[in-house]
Design goal:
The complex is a heterodimer of chains A (304) and B (815). Chain A is of the alpha+beta class and 304 residues long. Chain A has helices spanning 16-24, 39-44, 60-63, 82-87, 89-94, 96-102, 108-113, 116-122, 129-135, 234-240, 250-261, 272-303; strands at 9-11, 30-33, 52-55, 66-68, 74-77, 139-144, 148-153, 158-160, 163-164, 171-177, 187-193, 201-212, 215-224, 231-232. In chain A, the strands form four sheets. A five-stranded antiparallel β-sheet of chain A has the order 4-5-10-6-7. In chain A, strands 11-12-13-14 form a four-stranded antiparallel β-sheet, sandwiched between helices. Chain B has 20 helices and 29 strands. The chains are: A alpha+beta (304), B alpha+beta (815). The interface between A and B is medium-sized, with 31 and 30 residues. The structure holds flavin-adenine dinucleotide.
Chain lengths: 304, 815
């Protein structure tokens, strides 16, 4: 049931403590508002439950931009947009899959407003960048007035369809992406959307596949739009370990593993059959292309 | 008097003159209906919640959290419309269109979901929208019919048959078919399509009535229907002011001068604002009548998408019989279109579909049976192409399947069957105009390097297969035509009139009922009138379509605006020129000196048409301006106004009873070619390149003509590859721009647009209509290209990745 915009309330604190204090208030909960690119769509569809909005735009100082830790961890501020992310040269070099996917979110307008934190908290099964973050082993840093700071691995962040572990009084303050053990070539992602741009993902994959001596030694395979949340597919990850990619029955092995783990749905955007078939093919493609890239990189290394 | 040296010439026609309305639209300053200053009430519509049933009551929910109360609202239901019969004895609650079966407001039984039941109005838009969701329509459900393909014969409300030669008799036709060397059969399906104009439907209504009929402190509430004569005035986004006018005269039982309909700037229409605005205008008018206050009703995107018309879904079964060399001998087509819940415009959509069903080919024996059926979905309505895209898709897809069967190049198969001058179309229309379809086909093929591209695509695919790459390329063609103007005797019935008027400033004002819906009618009319009179474009203006001010020149539909109404603009301009001369306002002294150069761009010696001389360039422009100003000052309409009324061009007539004869005065002819790349992993189709080649009589404004073709091609790419209406129990489940997927710029290939010109004697400077043409060809060209790329023989739209992958899996299974 839709309320009326004129009945809504907004507050724009300019320091983090004030924001956290509002979130801790009893009564009608405050809903954080970053780029608004998910929230306003919800409002337009009459699905908005909240009446009080915490506009984060005054917190650029504490939540904006990117930082690099000494150990090579990338810290993405909660207000960092896709545009800021993809323009950073070091991010491009070290997290190419993240940049590539950021460039495919919506189109230019959305990339200029949308934030990674918003993408994570929105918890859509069809999100594009959050699954890449999951494949890269990212953690979410939450902060509240009462409990201070805690970090949650993305693996544990989504608890169900559009549900997260975030407490009502907590704010995402940053997303932490660890340095990548297998470098840029192990990262692979692909979005199959409803059209070229401004598209919602019908089926997608984000992966990190580490190779050593022609064999897969690590596989993190994240399925998008295949379940209630973006999720790692442990059965496929296990099936891939030790593979060379040349196994004649690899597709069948992936399919079997997938069948036990994923039950995609028929919905307004696609069919279960399409999703299941194409996801299996994308896993295979990820294997082939990361192998090729790992091989090329190896060759490049020895030639240098 | 007539001066001695008539100078027929054109300085504006044929040039890319900018649209006078473009600047404000591009800057965002152009006011659309929702931007107009407005003080009054906002209306909202309460709709049926299921596909079929009876309304048993309305429950008005609590509004206290909105700070509102139902006493603040005006509510209108069908009860407010007296059963008192209108002039012609019909329930005034039924919309006056082809048939009167669709109610403005449900009285009791209803036939589709989202059918209007009640209207509410309130001073606050926000409140009225929120309150509308608190009204529950209580219903008793009845079984609904949702699949037009399987619907029984009792659902059929219109049947059209075309018979040619042996086709007249079922047995004789069967014998002819049996004797053919090759027979090919197929079933082809197309889906509904949403017009997706940028601006949703919107309307403002005002009622002018006697002070005695207004509420007063003593008498705060008045009966809905005034006791004294009154007037209903509406303005809004629409294509056909006189359709709305007719509908309102009937609803309110008012004489013609009791209703005024004015068009506001329209943010697109594509057919979607052909019939629906009559309903919305009726709704706004009813609320305005009940409240005696101005009422504005603007649909949001979701309401517009679920409640208003879409393109008719169709199914065509085609059987063709050919000689061994591919020549067509027999065509049998059984076609069905889904009309939805009410008749609306479906009979004429079906008609246009039928007439275009066999394309530009010569076939001796033809048997077409087409049916329109009722289902419990919102009525399907006009959409660019109006039935032709459906049947053209079916036949052009079929032709490629025939070519495959025969092992023939698809272009060669078409070439062998093209109609020639003096030849006859399936509806027994003999082509009298000079046409050169074979040469035009070759021109298009060469321009796209058809053979070279096909060969390169095949080489690419071979290479890809060897190296294990999943991408496949293919090249496809569609050959088709589109008749402009109303079908058959339609233009005779319309009997359109155009007026041009001299203004005090010495300008010419063009008065038509045509609305500028993005096609460029203001620019093109100005060019036509300016060249007929010999004026500069700055001396010509186009009046706002307003039934108080402009004559009925018919609806803005059917690719008729430039060709049919544009021709009337030329004739009316010439009529006024004659009046100025006869009134002595132009004479020998005003003539251009003999031999005076007319300017660089001017082409001398071209008459606007067989019916219009276009002598305007014989006068000096300043003399014309002076004459126009003097004519306006005279106050005498006989001198200051020029008129023209439609006259049927010479030639044969159309016989509606047997579906034979001159279906359209002329056709535009086209060949569209596409190259695609299909990703075999995901089934995604990328359109790599596109060529749209067409003969359109005369290009009036190259820039706008390119725009029309490019826009139509993009809209058709959407229909062919992306757009699908997903229905569940009669409800459109993807009624939003998130899940109803139209193409964006990123989905559009380079589009090469080419024109041939073979002037039509009865269009302005030879122009034919082109508005709908580009919607017909892309879908079959693209699916033919997909078939060439992959061997996947899709016969249903859209060619979605889901369909392509399903076809791959089915093929694997079969192996
Ligand atoms: C036209 C369009 C196209 C789009 N295309 C894509 C696409 O291709 N791929 C894709 O993945 N998404 C897409 N989106 C969705 C959206 O843009 C992204 O999810 C975006 O990352 C959301 O970020 P935001 O800053 O706009 O979030 P908001 O809308 O501001 O917030 C989203 C949610 O996160 C919460 N939130 C935001 N910041 C915080 C915080 N710091 N702490 C706690 N909670 C917070 C909000 O309360 C809300 O629940 C699209 C949206 C639109 C309108």
């Amino acid at each position: 049931m839709s309320g009326m915009i004129s009945q809504l309330q907004a507050s724009r604190p300019t320091d983090l403590d004030a924001a956290l204090a509002l979130l801790a208030e009893a009564g009608d909960p405050w809903r954080p508002l970053a780029g608004g690119t998910d929230l306003l769509v919800e409002a337009q569809h009459g699905r908005l439950q909240h009446r009080r909005f915490l506009d984060l735009s005054g917190l650029q100082g504490s939540l904006g931009g990117l930082r690099w830790h000494a150990d090579g961890t990338l810290e993405v501020g909660a207000l960092c947009t896709y545009l800021q992310l993809q323009r950073d040269a070091r991010v491009q070099a070290e997290y190419p899959a993240l940049c590539a996917m950021a460039r495919l979110v919506g189109a230019a307008q959305i990339q200029a407003r949308g934030t990674l934190a918003g993408n994570i908290e929105n918890a859509s099964p069809a999100a594009d960048v959050a699954p890449v973050l999951l494949a890269l082993g990212a953690r979410v840093r939450l902060q509240s007035a009462a409990r201070g700071v805690r970090e949650v691995a993305l693996d544990d962040y989504w608890t169900g369809y559009r549900q997260t572990v975030r407490g009502q009084d907590e704010l995402i303050v940053a997303v932490l992406v660890p340095p990548q053990p297998f470098g840029p070539h192990a990262q692979w992602s692909r979005k199959v959307g409803t059209r070229s741009w401004q598209a919602i993902t019908k089926v997608g994959i984000a992966a990190r596949i580490g190779w050593a001596e022609g064999r897969i030694v690590e596989a993190r395979i994240v399925a998008v739009s295949m379940a209630a949340t973006p999720c790692r597919v442990a059965a496929i990850e296990q099936a891939l370990l030790g593979c060379s990619g040349e196994e004649p029955d690899l597709a069948a092995r992936i399919a079997t593993a997938q069948q036990s783990a994923l039950r995609p749905l028929d919905d307004v955007r696609s069919t279960a059959a399409y999703r299941a078939t194409v996801f299996g093919r994308l896993v295979l493609q990820a294997v082939c292309e990361t192998k090729g890239a790992a091989g090329d990189a190896g060759k490049g290394g020895s030639a240098a | 008097m007539n001066i001695a040296r008539p100078v027929a010439a054109r300085a504006h026609v044929g040039h890319s003159r900018p649209r006078p309305d473009a600047d404000a639209k591009v800057r965002g300053t152009a006011p659309y209906v929702d931007d107009l200053p407005f003080e009054g009430l906002h209306g909202a519509t309460i709709r049926t919640p299921i596909a079929r049933g009876r309304v048993t009551g309305l429950r008005f929910g609590d509004l206290s959290d909105l700070g509102a109360d139902w006493s603040e609202f005006a509510v209108v239901t069908a009860q407010d419309i007296p059963r008192r019969s209108a002039k012609d004895g019909v329930d005034p609650n039924l919309v006056a269109l082809i048939e009167r079966d669709q109610p403005f407001l449900v009285r009791d039984a209803f036939e589709h979901m989202h059918e209007p039941v009640a209207l509410i109005a309130h001073p606050s838009l926000e409140v009225v929208r929120a309150a509308a969701e608190r009204v529950e329509v209580v219903v008793e459900a009845l079984p609904a019919r949702l699949d037009f393909r399987t619907a029984g014969e009792d659902a059929v409300f219109k049947t059209i048959t075309v018979r040619r030669d042996a086709g007249e008799d079922a047995d004789a036709f069967a014998a002819e078919l049996a004797a053919c060397a090759v027979r090919v059969e197929g079933v082809y399906e197309t889906q509904a399509q949403e017009q997706c104009y940028i601006e949703p439907n919107g309307m403002i209504a005002r009622v002018v009535c006697d002070p005695d009929d207004l509420p007063s402190p003593e008498r705060p509430s008045v009966p809905t229907w005034p006791s004294k004569p009154f007037r209903v005035e509406v303005e809004g986004s629409l294509q056909c002011p006189y359709y709305v006018h007719k509908a309102l005269c009937s609803l309110f039982a008012l004489p013609e001068d009791g209703v005024r309909v004015a068009a506001t700037l329209a943010g697109g229409g594509f057919g979607g604002k052909e019939d629906y605005p009559s309903i919305l205008a009726g709704h706004a008018g009813l609320l305005a009548l009940k409240t005696r206050r101005p009422v504005k009703m603007i649909y949001d995107r979701a309401e517009d998408m679920v409640a208003t018309t879409k393109r008719h879904p169709s199914q065509s079964r085609i059987v063709t019989g050919h000689d061994a060399d591919g020549r067509l001998r027999c065509v049998q087509i059984d076609c069905r279109m889904d009309g939805g819940a009410y008749v609306t415009l479906t009979p004429v959509v079906l008609s246009r579909g039928v007439i275009h069903a066999v394309g530009p080919y010569e076939v001796p024996h033809v048997r077409i049976t087409a049916q329109a059926v009722h289902t419990n979905t919102p009525p399907h309505g006009a959409f660019r192409g109006f039935g032709a895209p459906q049947t053209v898709f079916a036949f052009e897809r079929h032709m490629d399947r025939v070519a495959t069967e025969l092992g023939l190049d698809p272009a060669e198969l078409r070439r062998r069957n093209l109609v020639v001058r003096g030849g006859t179309l399936a509806v027994s229309q003999t082509i009298e105009e000079p046409i050169a379809l074979e040469a035009w086909l070759d021109e298009a093929l060469d321009a796209f390097d058809w053979r070279g591209r096909r060969a390169r695509a095949e080489a690419f695919n071979h290479e890809a297969q060897v190296s294990g790459v999943a991408r496949r390329r293919g090249v496809g063609l569609a050959t088709f035509m589109h008749g402009a103007g109303f079908t058959g005797s339609g233009e005779d019935y319309l009997a359109s009139k155009v007026k041009v008027r001299a203004t005090a400033e010495g300008q010419l004002e063009i008065c038509t009922a045509q609305t500028e819906i993005g096609q460029g009618s203001i620019a093109v009319f100005s060019q036509i009138a300016a060249d007929t009179m010999g004026l500069q474009l700055a001396d010509v203006a186009v009046a706002r379509p307003d039934t108080d001010q402009v004559p009925n020149s018919g609806p803005t539909v059917a690719s008729r605006t430039s060709m049919v109404v544009g021709h009337l603009v030329a004739r009316a301009s010439e009529d006024l020129l004659g009046r100025l001369e006869r009134a002595g306002l132009l004479g020998e002294a005003d003539a251009r000196p003999e031999g005076e150069a007319l300017g660089e761009d001017v082409v001398v010696g071209e008459r606007p048409s067989a019916m219009v001389q276009g002598r305007g360039w014989s006068y000096r422009p300043e003399a014309l301006r002076r004459a126009l100003a003097a004519a306006a000052a005279s106050g005498d309409a006989e001198i200051a106004e020029g008129w023209a009324q439609y006259e049927r061009p010479p030639g044969g007539a159309w016989d509606d009873t047997v579906y034979k004869g001159v279906a359209y005065g002329t056709y535009a002819w086209a060949n569209y070619l596409a190259e695609v790349e299909v990703d075999g992993l995901t089934g995604e189709v990328k359109v790599l390149d596109f060529l749209a080649s067409q003969e359109i009589g005369r290009v009036l404004n190259p820039l706008l003509a390119h725009g029309q073709i490019e826009g139509g091609v993009v809209q058709a790419i959407g229909w062919a590859l992306l757009e699908d209406c997903v229905w569940k129990d009669g409800h459109l489940t993807n009624g939003n721009m998130t899940n109803y997927v139209v193409p964006t710029a990123a989905d559009v290939p380079p589009i090469q647009v080419r024109f041939q010109e073979s002037p039509y004697a009865y269009g302005p400077w030879g122009a034919k209509g082109i508005g709908e043409l580009p919607m017909d060809g892309p879908a079959p060209a693209l699916l033919n290209a997909i078939a060439h790329a992959t061997g996947i023989d899709l016969c249903a739209l859209p060619a979605s990745p889901e369909r392509i992958v399903a076809a791959q899996l089915a093929a694997e299974e079969a192996r």
